[in-house]
Amino acid sequence: MSTKTISEATEIIQNNLDYTLFSWSKQKGTTPIAVKHAEGVYLYDYDDKRYIDFSSGLMNVNIGHGDQRITEAVVKQMQEVSYVTPSCATKVRGELGKKLAEICPGDLNKSFFTLCGATSIENAIKLARLYTGRHKIVTRYQSYHGASIGAMAASGDPRKLPVDAQQAPNFVHIDIPILYRWEYGEENLLKETVAQLERLIAYEGPNNIAAIMLEGESGSSGCLKYPVGYLKAVRKICDKHGILLIMDEVMSGFGRTGKWFGFQNHDIVPDMIAMAKGLTCGYLPFGCLQVSDKIAARYDDAMLPLGLTYSAHPVSCAAALATLKIYEEDNLIANTVAMGEYMDQQVELLKQQHPAIGEFRNTGLLGCIELVKNRETKEPMAPFNAKPDEMEVMNKVAAKIKELGMYTFVRWNYIFTAPPLCVTKEQIDEGLAIISEAIKIADAATN
After folding, report:
1. Is the pTM above the cut of 0.85?
2. Which of helix, strand or coil describes residue 62?
3. What is the DSSP letter of 151?
C-alpha cells in the first residue's frame, strides 16, 4: 500500500468533512467510506478494500453498480439534447411514458416525471387534494415518505420530530400493528387493524379525506409486514368513501419485492404510484408520479397545476428507459424471487446459531434482521428511535460489519438485507457470513 494512496484517501475524506454536510449524521466523528469505484454488488475504496453492498446504496441500486449500458444511454442522449423545458416533447420522454404504462397495472397510464422520491410524494399529495377537493391525507406511523416538509409531515418516522414545528398540516396517522409483537391472536389482527382505520375515517370525516398513502412494502421502518388482506381492505374502504389510494413505491418498486411494484404482492391497483430509486437505480436523480386515466382526464381541458424545471429531463428519461430494459434483459425480477427465497432459507439457518435474532422480515430482496435481547420477551436490542447510549451494542455490530467489508443499512435493532437484484447465492453467502460474525456481538448481550 503506497503512501500516495493513503494520503489521497485521507485528503478526499477530509475535503468531504470540511466542505460538505452529511445527511442524518452528526458532522463530527463520522467516518465515511471514500468510494473510488463500484461494480455489481461491490464498492471499492482508495485503499482497494472491497465492500459488499448489502443495502443497494439506499435500497435503490437495484441493477447493481457500474453498468455501462446506462452510461452509453446517457451519453447518447446528451449528444442529442441534454435539456429542454418540460413544455417540449422528446422522443425518450414519450417512450418512457409508454413503457411505464405497459408495466403498471389497471389504467395507470399517465406519467408526471419528477426529480426524486420526495418530489413524487409532494406532487401526489397536491394532486390528490386538487382532484378530490378534500384536504386530509391518512398515512402510517412507522413509515417514511421523504425529507421535504410535506413528505416529512406525511411520514411517521422519528426523523420528522426535530422539524415538527414546521410540519405541513392535515396529515393523520394510523398505527398498523405487526404480527411479531401482536399479542391477541393472528385471527384478530386483520379485523382490529381494519376496524381501527374505519374508526379513524369516521372520526376525521370521510368527506375530508383526499387520500390514504401507504408504502407498497415497508422499508426503512423495519420491513414491517401488513396483516394479510389489509391492503385489499384499504382499497375497498377507499372505494366506498371516494378516497384515493396512493402507493409509495419509491423503495419497494422496480423488482425489489419480486414484482414490478410491492403492492402487486397484495393484489390491488391504486390510483397513483410514487416512484423513484429503482427507476434509474441512482445512476441519475429521477422520479415519477404515475396516475390513473380517470385522474388525468380531469385536466384534459383544465390546467394541470403541477410543474418542475427538470420534469421529464431527457437525460434522466434515457437513464430510466435503459434501466427498465436491463430489468427485463437480465431477468432481474425472476432472480429477485429466487434469491429472496434463498435469503429466507439461509437466515433461517442463522437463527439457529444466534439467539439475538428475533425475526427476519423479507419480501423478495427487501428484508431486515431484527435483533432482540430476549426471544421470549422480544425486547429489542435497541428501542425505537434509540438514544445514543441505547445504541452501544448495535453500534459495535455496525462497526464490525463495516470492518469485515460490508456496506449496509443498520438502524436501531435492524440489519437490512437488500442487495442489488443481480446478487448470486455465493454473494448472499458472503454477505450473511459477515453479518453472522457481527451478530456474535449481540449474542453476548442476550439474556
Report:
1. yes
2. coil
3. H
- Return all residues near 328 (Cβ < 8 A) that are at least 6 apart: none
The residues facing 42 across adjacent strands are 39, 52
Specify the DSSP element, H or E, that contains 51: strand 50-53
* Lookup: cell for 347: 437466515
Separation in Å, CA 222 to CA 8, 25, 121, 180, 208: 37, 19, 20, 12, 31
Rounded to the nearest 10 degrees, the angle between the axes of helix 392-403 and helix 425-443 is: 140
Cα atoms in the 13 Å half-sphere on the side-chain side of 410: 21
Q: In angstroms, rounded to a whole number, what is the distance separating the alpha carbons of residues 392 and 102?
A: 48
Q: What is the pLDDT of residues 405-437, one digit of tens each?
A: 999 999 999 999 999 999 999 999 999 999 999
Phi, psi of 363 (to 5 degrees): -135, 115
User: Could you tell me if residue 267 is left (phi over 0), alpha (psi between -120 and 50 degrees) or otherwise beta?
Assistant: left
List all residues 6 or more positions away from 203 whose beta carbon is below 8 Å from its beta carbon: none
Give every CB contact of residue 371 below 8 A, 6+ residues apart in sequence: 356, 357, 358, 380, 381, 382, 394, 397, 413, 414, 415, 439, 442
- With b for 16 or more beta-carbon neighbours within 10 A and e for fewer, the 100-120 pattern comes to beeebeebbbbbbbbbbbbbb
Contact in structure between 371 and 358 (CB atoms under 8 Å): yes
| Cα distances (Å, whole numbers) of residue 135 to 14, 204, 205, 206, 272 | 47, 11, 11, 11, 17
Amino acid at 298: R
Asked if 134 and 207 count as a contact pair (C-beta separation under 8 A), the reply is yes
Q: Return d(Cα 70, Cα 76) in angstroms, integer.
A: 10
- Residues with Cβ within 8 Å of 99's Cβ and at least 6 positions away in sequence, in order, are 321, 324
Query: Could you tell me if 351 and 419 are in contact, meaning their C-beta atoms sit under 8 angstroms apart?
Result: no
Q: Is 179 helix (H, G, I), strand (E, B) or coil?
A: helix
What are the pLDDT digits (tens) for 327-377?
Answer: 999 999 999 999 999 999 999 999 999 999 999 999 999 999 999 999 999
Per-residue pLDDT at 46 exceeds 50: yes
The count of other CB atoms within 10 Å of the CB of residue 420 is: 29
